Structure of Oxidoreductase:
Amino acid sequence: MSGTSDGAGAVTATPAAGVQIPEEPPPHGLGVSLPPADAPAKTEGTFPYAADLWAEGLLWAAVLRSPHPRARILSIDTKHAVEMPGVRVVVTHEDVPGDAGHGRGTADRPVFAKDEVRHHGEPIAAVAAEHPDTARLAAAAIAVEYEVLDAVTDPQLAFEAEPLHPDGNLIRHIPLRFGDAEAMGEVMVEGLYRIGRQDPAPIGAEAGLAVPRPDGGVEIYTASTDPHTDRDLAAASFGLEPEQVKVVVTGVPGATADREDPGIQLSLGLLALRTGCPVKLAATREESFLSHAHRHPTLLRYRHHADADGKLVKVEAQILMDAGAYADTSADALAAAVSFSCGPYVVPHAVVDGWAVRTNNPPSGHVRGEGAMQVCAAYEGQMDKLAARLGLEPDEIRLRNVMATGDLLPTGQTVTCPAPVAELLHAVKEAPLPELPKDAPEAEWLLPGGPEGAGEPGAVRRGVGYGLGMVHMLGAEGADEVSTATVKVSGSVATVICAAVETGSGFSTLARQIVQETLGIEEVHVAGVDTDQPPAGPACHGRHTWVSGGAVERAAKMVRTQLLQPLAHKFGMSTELLQINDGKITSYDGVLSTTVSEALDGKELWATAQCRPHPTEPLDEGGQGDAFVGLAFCAIRCVADVDIELGTIRVVEMTVAQDVGRVLNPRQLRARIEAGVTQGMGAALMENLRTTRGQVRHPDLTGYALPTALDAPEIRIVKLVEERDVVAPFGAKPASAVPVVTAPAAVASAVRAATGRPIGRLPIRPQAAVAQVVQQ
């Protein structure tokens, strides 16, 4: 052996030639960057997604969708489609044996339109044929006679318009009243804000396979993120008992929302039941854009009151959310928007009214940070206006008002979880700013618009802006948040059975780490998800990190007790005096030392456990109530270069500080934060599903711009505050939604700083970023 110095006095041994050094075992357990088990298959292209599925005797499905945003259906003629060679069956609303309506929040959405279509792309009929081209040709051959009606596409007109749905146009109104409604401040600023329709834009379009069962039921293989809810919706529509329908979750190719349009699953199941054959559907990108839910377009009017020192006195707000044709989860999104309408700031008085209404626009639903993202862009715009009015720096006005643990939300709920908002803001404020680009030809690509852009370096202004955001974790307003998990140990292998869908959030990796940490077993497998398992709930609001991770932890601890009890009894001590580290069981005094494998001695151990956080309550008629289990916070500083003549924008850097409770997997956490920031930047600068009188324009990835690797800025995570939430398993907080909420507000703030323009619309249009001095 030889040795080398590292320059600090330490000597590092290096092996002599031919000497074999045993490899160190890979790290495992909580707090390490354990790679996902499915990473090799996904990178090699061998991971099975729903679009890859196959079955003997397969038929192909196609769906006929409405070309109108609103029309009365006078007749549907399927004769020519049925007579086409290779077509097995055509189904319409007349062929739905069970409940005609479905929906995640409210069952107000028909499987197939019956008397009226209410949005562009609504399903009218479905076809099963022997070839995918035949199915599409047959769907196009279905003759539908429409009476086109005037579409209501402005949510402000929905209040006075004729009812677009039997349930009316108003889905929910929340009038929040907190403190003294008559309070006034010495300084007042107003603002009008509009947030566009962001699409979740999953990597893979919706797809699925339905297989009939001998007992008259059906199995549906699809990328569901909430399989038990999808099963119940399908069973009700099919007129079957829930146990006759099984949903098997396939690989999920990206999920930043509910992921699936349940209507696709319902069409597939009906076709499989009618034909007695397996039926597959792989949606086109256009169908995906037309069918699944989008972020709620929102109109917000704000008035902020403050004293002469910049301390907030009162916030007044009106929030109008466009739900599209059906309710979906709009009531929940509105509750989040109204509750967080004042942001992570101490506000003594608040008067907020929020409405969610039906229109003939595309459907809206759950997308990361729904409700919270829209109001964050508005209240942060107001904070910038207050700073300008009072002659304060944007960061200073925020520091004078940030909330902390023990403060009240405008819903009257006390913030009991860690709320290190000031610490987060200080961290991004004090981080070094990026260097200015060199004034040289080789740095032209740094200009907004890139090397082929028309801009001049002299027209570029750099702006620095801030955003503070917050989201709630888990469901709200009395939602029963529960998940069940089973942990089995056989030999030296552990298996986790939990219906928590791996959507890219890293739950499967986290489940492995929990079992490794608790039981000291390195080889841990996570079973596939289907509805034969107990429910775990939807994969949104970071639920699975908290609720499903908590269930896995409890089950693993129960197995741990089963493992250690015989040893503890044998040596006359309690199990608390035994510890498991790196696959070894030792006692506090060193008397006992054995391996986990030896202690198991061929036995199979298992346990099932549930995790159910403390209950919440609905908001009352005044918008008051303890509606949320916990909160997460984020601060982002954005540095952006703006060509004030052309209005082109380049985000140079996003500096992030976030409260995460506890870092469970550093690499995975960083990836989630970076992805959230990039998605939020997309909402700020380019993502907007455009419509003309309810008609979706360019429903494809050519017409709908997404940020790519070339658009993504430098993302610097300067601080992760690990102040553990005592009511959360492991003390961790979900990480991906809050940067999505905060990033758009930070980008808008930076563009305001560079241009002096108010920037009240997202995504930011080029004409809005042209500086005032240029227009004069």
Q: What stands out?
A: The chain has a mean pLDDT of 90. The chain is about 25% helix and 25% strand.
